[in-house]
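input
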Amino acid sequence: MPEADDPTVIDTLAITAEDLIAALEANARRDAGAVLRVTPPFSGRMRARLHLAGAEGGYDDTPRPIHIPPQRLLADDAPAFPSVDATEDDLRSNPETEYTPERHRERHEGRVETWRDAVRDHVGEAATIETDGGAVAVTVTLLG
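output
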């Protein structure tokens, strides 16, 4: 197999923080099937980009692109995406704050923004990705 067709040559995976956060958020909000896609030809350092799995149809050619679940690039202690219901519960349980839909929306937007900032600090330095050639351990580089 030529090196350009062999996904096991990948040793470093680069991803923008924006693509990673967008994929995580899309999946948390609506189970969108967002992945990070690495497209051939393959080399030691590859860029993964935001992609919706299945949006491109089937692949007849080989090698096929690699689809990586975005959660795979996070450290185990990464914060969970904040739930709208938990935000509402916290707001309603505070006797010093009156619940309003506008306050709920603002509070939740703030929590999501805090989560986005925190995720950047919880990207793992390494990950294992599944490829057609087998599992590959890669170094993860966060861009931006």
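quick obs: Residues 13 and 60 are 25 Å apart (CA to CA).
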